[in-house]
Amino acid sequence: MKRLHNVRSAILALGLSVAALSFAAIAPGAPLIQPASAKPPAPMAFCHAYPEAKACNTGFAECAACHTTPPARNAFGMQVSEKLAPGMARPLSDEDFLKYLPAALKAVEDLDADSDGFSNIVEIMAGTQTADANSVPKTLACATDDSTRAASAQWNVCAYDAAYTFKKVHMDFCGRSPLRADMDGFRRITDEKAKLARISEAIDQCLDSPYWLGPNGVVWNIANAKIRPAYAVKSGENPGPVPLGDYDDDYNLFTWANSDDHDVRDLLLAQYFVKRTGPVTLEQISEEELAKRPRGTMQPVPKDKRVGMISTRWFGAVNTMFTSIPRTTAAQAYRSYLGFDIARMQGLNTVPHEPKDYDIKGVGAPECAVCHATLDPLSYPFTRYNGISGGYSYNDDRLKDYVRVDGPRVAEAPAGGMILGQNVADLLEWGKVAANSDAFAMKVTYDYWKLLIGREPDVNDQAEYTRLWRGLKSATTYNYRVEKMLHDLVRTNAYGRP
Amino acid sequence: MTKLIVSGLAALIALAACTTTPEPAPLEFAADTPPPVASADPRVQFKDGERYLSDLSANLNMPREDICKELSRYDCMTDAFRIVLGGVEAPNLLVNEPIENAALTSPIAVDRVALHVCSNRVRMDREKPAEAVLLKTGGFGADGRAKSPDTKWLNTTADAIYGSILMRSPSEREIQNLAAYYSQVAEGRPGNSADVAADWVTLSCFAVASSLEAVFY
């Protein structure tokens, strides 16, 4: 089924624009394929021109805003490129690119790149795709006559339907339909506030159920793509044939941070581990108990160097493995907790004079540098954390062990790096910047939104989705408590309107 | 059973939303009943196998661990059809998230599970009539010699099927459809056969259990 480009994609994709709009800076009629080169953050420039655009919540727009598969441009990108400093020699300097881009965007506002009847500017502001005729602004509002009829039907498709929500909450949070008596009882409630209270009560009960909190439960399964367990190399309880690390620690910490009155930022800040004491109960492990663990399940990174989920033994074992500059590790952390998939050119934030290619992997080639100018500075803070080689420990001099394989310059790679445009001294700071970012709050909210709504947030969900992730960040709203956010998520029209 | 399924196909098509038909009959509404309003943002979700079986287990009073086993050994969800029924298996199969779109075999698996569960329920009902959930006795009169099941029994059984599986009372039309289906199931066989009655309950249960309403939410 073809969907409108969703808000999340739109937001994340502007990372593409770093490369995408950069490529737009070529002469009209010039070949579409141009040598890739690191350019200023064009997606940010796009959002500087349109700060109120739906796609600019985080200051990034999508590559897809101007490109098909970068560097090839879509219809809108072609229009922009034609108006971008026509007559000037190519390639444009970064300064000229940024200088002339706003005028080029302005010049094509009233055009209709995809001929769908909606001008480019209308689509930009609505959050639909300027180059996709199937992506058009639409309204979910019912006509008056329809609203009247829908209100008397079994499910009211024109408004938030509390009875529908009550049934859905049981399915989503408890893994079963409500009992018939409970459903009939709910339908007898006439007071709207009482209905919402009853729904909240049901959620509270289900949030403590094995279906939600237990091993292989809902929260556990959200973590699958972030942890990427592999039984063959599991250690600890129920070990695989080649035990390297125990991902149960990771699942337990993930479940802990996402439940009860716990701060979800601990996914990237925790300096403790958690154990399961029952089907739905968890508790922090004391350092004494942790120190007594057998070799196969030890967590060798010292407490003051731990950075939640991204410095665990398992994370190092399956991502860093034997590498000096753990790019895969950084990319997985960036994707899992901030929602930026560098392989899809998302979240690109070019750092000047990068990549330096300390390990002589050839990442400085123009076609590689487009991503590695972001990825490598993102990876440096991981270079002091061992994977399989080095025994999963922390070591300030770790890179010296790689000189023989990766050359002498590898030892020069810094412990500090850059994430989201901010310099960080080490992985601890990396985790703090990430955990406090908009992108983190959006990713947490997005995971639950996709699970519970059944699709990614789209244009019509923008206001509700934004309210939720901003609320997650706000100390006076949800204060990074996932369960509080979920209580409001089920009150959105996106969830409760059939 | 196969013959019955084939002969009853037309009725099942009308009842089971999982099944498709080339030319669906238009919905009929009373003159004074306007058509329902379509959702502007439809997003029904698949229950997935675990929730589906959990519901059937609770509603049909069958232990979850016994409700559906392939070859009498393998649990239909956890062992046999986990991935196509929307489950995940991260540590061994590296399936970290449910498949985005239903697999070609997903509806087949749902149908198989539904038929399995319904067959088991009816078998249990016949083995212990006093604890029957769907197939209750008394269909052929007080002496059991009536030529066909009485209307009250048919309606009560239809009501039990809807009530047990969908946890709601059926509409009059839904009851009429199921009751009328009995004659199709009985075609070519004695109408007062206990086997025919059991087949009718099994297939009616299957039709409701494989409906859009039972499989999605």
Can you describe this structure?
The complex is a heterodimer of chains A (498) and B (217). Chain A is 44% helix and 3% strand. Chain A is built from 24 helices and 4 strands. In chain A, helix 3 crosses helix 4 and helix 17 packs across helix 18 (366-379). In chain A, the strands form 2 sheets. Chain A has a two-stranded antiparallel ribbon with strand order 1-2. Chain A has a two-stranded antiparallel ribbon with strand order 3-4. With 498 residues, chain A is mainly alpha-helical. Chain A is flat. Chain A has helices at residues 7-24, 42-49, 75-83, 94-107, 120-126, 144-151, 162-174, 180-188, 192-207, 210-213, 218-222, 224-227, 248-257, 266-269, 287-291, 313-320, 327-338, 366-379, 403-406, 427-435, 438-453, 462-473, 482-489, 493-496; strands at 274-278, 281-284, 417-419, 422-424. The longest helix of chain A has 18 residues, at 7-24. With 217 residues, chain B is mainly alpha-helical. Chain B has a domain at 2-14 and 45-67 and 103-215. In chain B, 48% of the residues lie in helices and 2% in strands. In chain B, strands 1-2 form a two-stranded antiparallel ribbon. The longest helix of chain B is centred in the middle third of the chain and has 22 residues, at 106-127.
